[in-house]
Amino acid sequence: MGLSASSSAPYIGLAIKTYICLISDQRMQNILPLFQKGAEYDRVIMIASEDEKSGINPKFSGIFEDLRKALSDRIDLHLHPIPVHPMKPASTEQVCRELIRSIGPQDDVTINLTGGTKPMSIGAYNAGFATEARLLYVDTQSEQLYYHNAAGVSSEPFNLEKVDVDTFLRCHGKLPGKPHPSNRFSSRVKPLFSRRNSPVVTAQLIQKVAHLAIEKKPRFVPGSAETDLSDFLTDLVELNLASQCSDGILIGEDAFNFLNGGWLEYYVENALLETGLFMDIVCNLKVTKIPNQIDVACTINGKLGVIECKTGSLKGPDGQDTLSKLFALRKFLGGTFAKSILVITSSKDSLTPEFLSRADEYVSCVMYIEQLEDLGSLIVKQLTSRSRG
């Protein structure tokens, strides 16, 4: 799909804003400027490198198609029909010069230097400098856009329109399904954690109740002489998570499943919502070609967070399987623009050195039970840090 006369026909006689970028594996640096408030580009022209047969490299034409499908309702995207040599700056310079000349002197042209190989970026810079086009560099780690022109260098912080989870995934060629319906008890999480105890103590009491009921059907928890547990059983009854009986409480099967682990993903969702910083938050997301649903997915300034919530055992194969799942998910869903976070209800001291060592290698971050109180801000810090791990 090249930039033909017919594709540019709607702009004939008009001064338009054209955005030129070099396609790369890391797609977000190509497209984030399109979401910057006030940018308002009219069309995008993407330049790809060539393969060994001097045609457009199929990998990059595939990336273009993913982006075109994901953003077609937002902006006009075109793949320039002439590829460039990935290792020869002069090749990219020549193509960019000819492209800018064909666009016309009345138009506003911005070239994003961030994508492609380094030689391609050098060539694009030379072409932009010679033709007085605006040059743009996207620093996704400091979250700044840097503009170069005859007047010098200026910068502006990211001020992005919403990049939701669906758009992020589609830009990476992934097809998200509809989120699984929320558990009917999900609205109980906030009041349950807003009562008499700290988040850590509440989480410990939830796990204690679930453990006491785990092998019983119907799920029965006897009354307790322990003040904390007795008060907590009363809370469960008042929140309709259990019913009172003569010598304890009864917990329905759906409520038991919620208390036996389902609560954590909704606790995470609520912690993220309370920060007011996330562009999108989705629980129980199904993605094509991924066998298990994603517990929580979120976006913040064009980065994706993939969060696994785990209340069960992390010993032996269970722990390794959890880490391996997150490692594969991050690579599959967004590469360096995605981070994987494991939220668990175990303390760090209870985990083996082998698990902690593997966690450092396999996931971006592990959040322990001791961090529940500040979970939202800690996840923000992790997702906005300069580390791409």
Question: What distinguishing features does this structure have?
Answer:
389 residues; alpha/beta; 7-stranded mixed beta sheet; 5-stranded mixed beta sheet; elongated; disordered N terminus
What would your notes on this structure say?
There is one protein chain. This protein has helices at 5-8, 28-35, 58-71, 89-103, 118-131, 165-171, 189-192, 199-213, 227-238, 253-275, 317-333, 353-362, 375-383; strands spanning 17-22, 43-47, 76-79, 108-112, 134-139, 144-149, 152-157, 219-222, 243-245, 248-251, 280-285, 294-300, 303-310, 338-344, 365-367. The chain is α/β, with parallel strands linked by helices and 389 residues long. It has a 7-stranded mixed beta sheet with strand order 3-2-1-4-5-6-7, with helices on both faces. The protein has a 5-stranded mixed beta sheet with strand order 11-12-13-14-15, with helices on both faces. Strand 5 (134-139) and strand 6 (144-149) form a beta hairpin.
Query: Would you tell me the structural class of the helices and strands?
Result: alpha/beta
Report strand order across the widest sheet.
Answer: 3-2-1-4-5-6-7
What is the first-to-last residue Cα distance? 35 Å
Overall helicity:
25-40%
The run of helices and strands is: HEHEHEHEHEEEHHHEHEEHEEEHEHEH
Task: Report mean pLDDT, rounded to a whole number.
Answer: 90
Instruction: Please count the beta strands (DSSP E, at least 2 residues each).
Output: 15
Biggest sheet layout: 7 strands, mixed
Shape: elongated
Ranges with pLDDT <50 over ≥5 residues?
Answer: 1-12
- Report strand %: 15-25%
Count of alpha and pi helical runs: 13
Q: Please tell me how large the radius of gyration is.
A: 26 Å
